[in-house]
Design goal:
Elements (H helix, E strand, L loop, with lengths): L6 E6 L7 H14 L4 E6 L1 H4 L6 H17 L8 E4 L5 H10 L4 H5 L2 H10 L5 H15 L5 E3 L5 H17 L8 E3 L34 H9 L16 H14 L3 H7 L6 H27 L1 H30 L7
Bound molecules: tryptophanyl-5'AMP.
Length: 334
């Protein structure tokens, strides 16, 4: 019988400080999956340079993201934790896959369309081909499932299409990956404009909670979160601000919308907001403490990313070689 556990791959860009959206939409779910699956979690630094990065900040944030993975409960012994640029098969695989991806497909990616509005003509070619690198990340390990927030679903579907195209053109090579989107918290909204996604690239700091925000900052940001003038704590699309805060509580505590509605009946927003802030703080404070400890111990982090790179290199090279052979490249040695 095939004892192979299903493979999971996912990653986060160290392109800004991680938000509560990254925590709830990605990391918190990964932690739940680590026992059941064979998991690879990557800090995708190659993706981060699709927009301008200060080298010093990129270095520091790459390590911080790794520390956040571990501090949030991803056990280095159970998972392969690594840094994308340490594993060349991602870049090489991305080039090969570029040749099996259509411009039209990439032009239809909503994230690209949004970003090109922001950057105009000076948008980098990297931002256009970024989903192909993401496809390489996933396909180089034959991942079955890709746990992501809703905003990344389209990219995972494209990876699947590219994989199917390659398989049809040559012969079965890649597992067709599927997005895995958790039922709650798949899209945590911006605190100031609750109809758009909370994002680490947003300029207004009141729009997001950072994983590393100190408690007093979290309290302030939640107290300023946009709600509405109805004054009723109700899980409704007509109250996107309130619904978003409720979703945060639901994702962090497992409680239900009805329980929250009942608890705050006739009480307005002040207590509800205060409790939301305290729920977030209770979740993030231990993570922050552990991140700080881990960042003090660079040797330990190095040990983890080195071991991760070794394993990831081994696995990804096998698949890359297979691709090269099928395409018709001459192997350097048998
Ligand atoms: P990134 O770095 O933008 O986000 C990392 C993860 O966090 C999720 N996320 C959210 N979830 C809920 N609410 C939010 N407001 C929110 N903001 C972000 C994202 O959906 C994502 O799961 N291209 C990817 C990184 C990547 C990747 C991969 C992911 C590169 N290669 C391979 C999976 C597999 C990205 O930019 O995510």
């Amino acid at each position: 019988m095939d004892e192979r556990k299903k493979v999971i791959f996912s990653g986060i860009q160290p392109s800004g400080n991680l938000t509560l959206g990254n925590y709830i939409g990605a990391i918190k779910n990964w932690v739940k999956l680590q026992d059941e699956y064979d998991c690879l979690f990557c800090v995708v630094d190659l993706h981060a340079i699709t927009v301008k990065q200060e080298p010093k900040d990129l270095r520091q944030r790459t390590l911080e993201v790794l520390a956040i993975y571990i501090a949030s409960g991803l056990e280095p012994e159970k998972n392969t934790l690594f840094i994308q640029s340490h594993v060349p098969a991602h870049s090489e695989g991305a080039w090969l896959l570029n040749c099996f991806t259509y411009m039209g497909e990439l032009g239809r990616m909503t994230q690209f369309k949004d970003k090109s509005q922001k950057y105009g003509e000076s948008i980098s070619a990297g931002l256009f081909t970024y989903p192909v690198l993401m496809a390489a990340d996933i396909l180089m390990y034959n991942a079955d499932l890709v746990p992501v927030g809703k905003d990344q679903k389209q990219h995972v579907e494209l990876a699947r299409d590219i994989a199917a195209r390659f398989n049809n053109l040559y012969s079965p090579t890649f597992t067709l990956p599927e997005p895995y989107i958790a039922p709650t918290g798949a899209k945590i909204m911006d605190l100031q404009e609750p109809t758009k996604k909370m994002s680490k690239s947003e300029e207004n700091a009141n729009s997001y909670i950072l994983i590393m925000d100190p408690p007093e900052v979290i309290r302030k940001k939640i107290s300023r979160a946009v709600t509405d003038s109805l004054g009723v704590v109700k899980y409704s699309d007509e109250q996107p601000g309130v619904k978003n805060l409720m979703n945060i509580i639901i994702s962090l505590t497992g409680t239900t919308p009805e329980e929250i509605e009942k608890k705050y009946e006739g009480r307005g927003y002040a207590d509800f907001k205060k409790d939301t802030a305290e729920t977030i703080i209770a979740e993030l404070e231990p993570v922050q403490k552990r991140v700080k400890e881990l960042l003090e111990d660079k040797t330990y982090l190095e040990q983890i990313y080195k071991a991760g790179a070794e394993k990831a290199n081994y696995l990804s090279m096998k698949i890359l070689r297979k691709m090269q052979k099928k395409i018709g490249f001459i192997p350097v040695s048998k």
